[in-house]
Known about the structure:
Elements: H1 2-14, H2 16-20, E1 22-25, E2 33-39, E3 44-50, E4 56-58, H3 66-69, E5 79-81, E6 86-89, E7 121-126, E8 130-136, H4 141-150, E9 159-161, H5 164-174, E10 179-183, H6 185-197, E11 201-206, H7 213-225, E12 228-229, E13 243-249, E14 256-259, H8 264-274, H9 278-284, E15 288-292, H10 295-299, H11 301-313, E16 317-321, H12 330-339, E17 345-349, H13 350-357, H14 367-381, E18 399-404, E19 409-413, E20 418-422, H15 434-448, H16 452-468, H17 479-487, H18 492-512, H19 514-517
Parallel strand pairs: 7-11, 7-15, 8-13, 9-14, 11-12, 15-16, 16-17, 17-18
Antiparallel strand pairs: 1-2, 2-3, 3-6, 4-5, 8-10, 13-14, 18-19, 19-20
Helix pairs in contact: 4-5, 6-15, 13-14, 15-16, 16-17, 16-18
Amino acid sequence: MLHYTRHILQQRKENPALNKGKTIVLDMPGSPIVAFVRQTSKQTVLCAFNMSGNKASFKPADFLDWQIASKLDIPDGEIHLDPYTSSFNGLYPPKKGAEWGLCPAPAPQQNGNGHVRNGTTRVFAADMLIADHHVDEDQVPNFLHAFKKHDPKFTDGSKATIDKAQYEAFLKESNGARKISPGGGTACSLWMLKKLLGNKVDISLMGLAGDDEYGKTTKDFLKNAGIHLVTEEWPAGVPQETAVSPVIRHKSGKDSVLTYPGTETQALSKLLEQNPDLLENSVKKSDIVYLPESTVSKFGVTFFNELLRLRGKYNKELVIALPSRAHFGPDDSERIRFLLPSCNVVMGNDVEFCRVLDKETTRPVSAEQMGRVIKVIQAKFNEHYEGKEKMACSPYGQVAFITRGNKDEALIVTKNRVIPIKVFQAKKHTMLGAGYATFAGFLDGYIQRIPHESSATLAMALGAEKVQQPDSNPFLNNPEISKKKVLLRGGAMRKVASDLKALEAEDELEHHQPSLSR
């Protein structure tokens, strides 16, 4: 109701007929419709409201002077109204956002957000599809020694990019000892999200994988969850080569990740040249655009900007995930700062938030630096621009979800609150993929519209489950079972379970008594 009221006030402000035009009330005795015209010399607006629980229709020409009726563009000459709905004919088109990344004013929608809560939420994401290639450190001793000599900063838990020659050396030394699993934060997070929400979410992913053993593993992984790959066809003229991340399992438990990029980015560019409407159609059909910030470094600024332009054009919710242990450049940092005012959700760990919004840092992040970062986030969330008050958003507002691995906690940051979220203590096995699990858990709650602190509590509980998983898969093996398990716990999880149960009851009531919900 708040979002709808704001929308109506903005329409009144932008349309002269609504704020200073003369009023002509349509005399419609016995009709459940209340209708009137507001008119100036330059604009004529017909406003109609169905006050009943049944569908109703009328022909304005039957109740208006022909000179007034001729100024209205009404298909078939008749207006049809569903129960308790309204119609405004003759409004000026909404003003367009000035720059990419700023969300222009969306049309009012049910529940005051960008998608119907008790329907199916459509998520569109873009990222490179990669596979993980796991080996124990004692399987690649010579490679590791040579690589550390080449990059002295590389230690347990590090992340680095290697070239083709280094990858071939790695392959040669680890041959026969590798385990292949799907990798990549976006693919793994969305896979878990689909498992958690089932038919409540429909996911499309733009990315490419070749027909090699790595690509087949990744594509089968996505297909198994029911995630639609909108770019399955590999374009001719580009070698098929799936991007691979060699994961070295150290005895310390801190896995190191080495990324060997394939040719997907080159292939995707060519595919989009051949199918110029593919990206726009994908965004247009979605409710939420899920974007890892690393899309900039992988696909380039042009692709990133076009994706954001389309998101603004079609008024889609925007969720950004900051990639773990990535190396940001000044352009990336400025881009995130620019996007924050129009982000619905931004997720990442404390180190990445500090790198983007403050300066380089290492763990543990100091209280002073974390305080500076929180001030920047809140200032950006409070920035005003035309149409922001009507931005499609959760009823709980914009949010930053910040995980803090060394403190076993998370922070929820909104424009006026900072809420610490504690997690369950767990004996750690591996941290690989814990962030992906927390992101999936937070999106689960966000899509279902439970309060942000409950979403974060669920997210951190699923992250703790992932940490305790003994194998090195970068995803929860059974996220739906893990969710049921953590919801049965007491303490903080009792509030989460209560919120989800209340939501189910509300949806059931709305499904059977739509007029009451309105």
